[in-house]
Design goal:
The protein is an alpha+beta fold. It has one domain. It has helices at about 5-10, 40-60, 85-95; strands spanning about 15, 25-30, 65-70, 75-80, 100-105, 110-115, 120-125. Strand 3 and strand 4 (about 75-80) form a beta hairpin. The two termini are about 25 Å apart. The mean pLDDT is about 95.
Length: about 130
């Protein structure tokens, strides 16, 4: 990912219904929208999202819808909160040609580069707006 893309990812905010009370403290947020960081037509994004959901459910994961995007709401990507380990999250991110996934560890938000699996602690708590 480019430095500019990294900065945009670091500013992401998350929207959605509150997580269930019994949701684990460690989980990933994975989307299938805009593969390779390229804006993609709506129907292609929807098809990729449905495929990601089906793959995650087939693997036995519990899912919760979360949408990540810019603070002003101009760019939004629906995705899935998934209680999955970091290697598995990166694997799904790579499979769906994502530049990065987010990982929440004990409430703290990390940005994980799908190219090399490196993780950057964003030094802020995960929360929904």
């Amino acid at each position: 990912m480019t430095p500019g893309q990294r900065e945009q990812f670091k500013q992401a905010v998350f929207r959605g219904e509150p997580l269930p009370a019994d949701w684990p403290g460690d989980f990933a947020i994975i989307t299938a929208y805009d593969p390779d960081g390229v804006p993609t037509k709506g129907e292609l994004n929807l098809a990729a999202d449905l495929a990601l959901e089906a793959d995650l459910r087939a693997a036995g994961y519990r899912l919760h819808r979360i949408t990540g995007g810019s603070a002003d709401g101009r760019h939004q990507e629906p995705g899935w909160a998934v209680p999955i380990g970091l290697p598995g999250a990166v694997e799904f991110g790579c499979r769906y040609r994502q530049l990065a996934v987010f990982y929440v560890r004990a409430g703290g938000l990390c940005l994980v580069d799908c190219a090399d699996g490196s993780s950057e602690d964003l030094k802020r708590a995960f929360g929904l707006v």
